[in-house]
């Protein structure tokens, strides 16, 4: 049996509104194992992004417990949360979020600057290795907007991998891509999951569910189906 990397127990999330509050997640229980390729699906507004942001420590929740590798991380301080994010998690977004004024080298370097762990030589080595992994070493000194959408998404995956995270979070990573490029990106994510990375992805494209080892369907803030 492979190890549990994440366990959520009875997670509840509210967004404050003018005179009330919106109950967005209503008791979420989840177990995610190392190397799982999880897809979170559900209608627009069902709470997918909220759940992903909670899992990725980008957002807080109001009730319940979050266990990471068996340790209760529910009550970490802001500083510990940001360290946790930087060490354990890589993010891939629909809109790439690359910085247009920086070249590819500098974009991939960014997460390593924030955590300040590596020497210049080590950073250089990591950037080149990750670029090679996504097949774009020759683009190292280009700017993001000189690349196609699919290439930019590969760069964000290289960036997400640079600190050796356990988990990659991806919110609609192929939402801005055409069919062929989507397939390339999905194959790359699948390869990473087979190499032991845990992938947690939000999508509304049913054609992509075949890549998942587990599908979690949200409806109005609860998990209605697990496949
Ligand atoms: N920051 C926020 N403040 C208030 N309401 C929000 C906020 N973010 C999302 N919501 C609301 O919470 C619900 C779930 O949103 P979201 O998690 O983005 O759903 P999904 O990603 O499934 O479309 C929606 O009704 C949305 O309008
Ligand atoms: Mg969303």
What does this protein structure show overall?
It is a single chain. By secondary structure, the chain is α/β, with parallel strands linked by helices. It has one domain (37-57, 78-226): P-loop containing nucleotide triphosphate hydrolases (Rossmann fold), CATH 3.40.50.300. The protein contains 6 helices and 10 strands. The chain has helices spanning 48-55, 78-88, 104-115, 120-133, 149-161, 179-194, and strands spanning 4-16, 21-33, 37-41, 63-68, 71-72, 89-93, 167-171, 198-202, 214-219, 222-226. The strands form 2 sheets. A 6-stranded mixed sheet has the order 6-7-8-3-9-10, sandwiched between helices. Helix 3 (104-115) packs parallel to helix 5, helix 4 (120-133) crosses helix 5 and helix 5 runs parallel beside helix 6. It is globular. The model has no long low-confidence stretch (mean pLDDT 93). Residues 15, 22, 24, 42, 44-50 line the site of adenosine-5'-diphosphate.
Core attributes:
227 residues; alpha/beta; Rossmann fold; six-stranded mixed sheet; four-stranded antiparallel sheet; 10 strands; binds adenosine-5'-diphosphate; binds magnesium ion
Helices and strands in order:
Blueprint: E1 4-16, E2 21-33, E3 37-41, H1 48-55, E4 63-68, E5 71-72, H2 78-88, E6 89-93, H3 104-115, H4 120-133, H5 149-161, E7 167-171, H6 179-194, E8 198-202, E9 214-219, E10 222-226
Parallel strand pairs: 3-8, 3-9, 6-7, 7-8
Antiparallel strand pairs: 1-2, 1-4, 4-5, 9-10
Bound molecules: adenosine-5'-diphosphate and magnesium ion (MG).
The site of magnesium ion has 2 residues, from helix 1.
